[in-house]
Write a structure and sequence with these properties.
- The strands form 4 sheets. The protein has a 4-stranded antiparallel beta sheet. The protein has a 4-stranded antiparallel beta sheet with strand order 5-6-7-8, with no helix packed on it.
- The chain contains 2 helices and 15 strands.
- A hairpin with a 7-residue loop joins strand 11 and strand 12.
- It is mainly beta.
- The longest helix has 5 residues.
């Protein structure tokens, strides 16, 4: 991807905070992932610094567009879904980035889910992921952690999975589901994915595979099915 992303001189236009910190996640548009040389048009979103801010850039831009914390709650995950970036905050609010421009320094956001799920809100007790199911539905997976032996050490306790329901009369909501059917989800600090388990020998349906990507946490063999 190095041959089509902005040249090194362009990275000087990164937001100041991003220059001084490590990007926790970089997510690209589908075309860049699948056919990088055939589709020079691309979009990239980054979650960065201790405040989990979001910055974006696309082909033709000479500068990153940074979303302020006043515009968007602390980001938990970002996904490129239905040709737009969607950002999940730590209280499970969902925001779609309708458009942005590093040239005009503009951005348009749409709050898909304004009322967050407040049942599990502590950053120390959960990690949330966005993933698209094999059938094209947008899922949020909440990984609940608990303290181990009364020490500053956490293990995975259980998972909750929510599906975006856009048929609600008032506004879209997250609806908890008890099964993901024949899918298997792969979650981690990179791009989370789903696949049809039957197409991959040894892969179990209705299962979640995950990495221990929480600082100072000992992973467990807990599973969700």
């Amino acid at each position: 991807m190095a041959d089509i992303l902005p040249e090194s001189s362009d990275w000087a236009f990164l937001p100041a905070h991003l220059l001084d910190s490590i990007a926790e996640k970089l997510v690209t548009s589908y075309q860049l992932l699948r056919f990088p040389r055939l589709f020079p048009s691309y979009q990239v979103a980054a979650i960065y610094n201790d405040f989990c801010l979001v910055a974006l850039i696309k082909s033709g831009d000479k500068a990153w567009t940074s979303i302020s914390i006043e515009q968007l709650e602390l980001a938990a995950d970002v996904i490129y879904y239905e040709s737009r970036f969607h950002v999940l905050d730590r209280r499970l609010g969902l925001t779609k980035i309708k458009s942005f421009s590093g040239i005009e320094r503009s951005i348009e956001l749409e709050a898909i889910i304004k009322t967050p799920n407040r049942k599990y809100t502590s950053p120390e007790s959960q990690i949330s992921y966005l993933v698209e199911s094999s059938s094209g539905e947008l899922l949020t997976v909440v990984r609940i952690l608990k303290e181990k032996d009364h020490k500053v050490q956490f293990v995975t306790w259980f998972f909750k999975v929510y599906k975006l329901n856009r048929s609600s009369r008032s506004h879209p909501v997250w609806v908890e589901i008890e099964s993901i059917g024949g899918d298997a989800l792969f979650l981690g600090d990179n791009h989370s994915v789903s696949l049809v388990a039957s197409q991959f020998p040894g892969c179990l349906p209705n299962s979640i595979y995950y990495t221990d990507d929480f600082n100072d946490i000992v992973g467990s063999k807990a599973s969700w099915a």
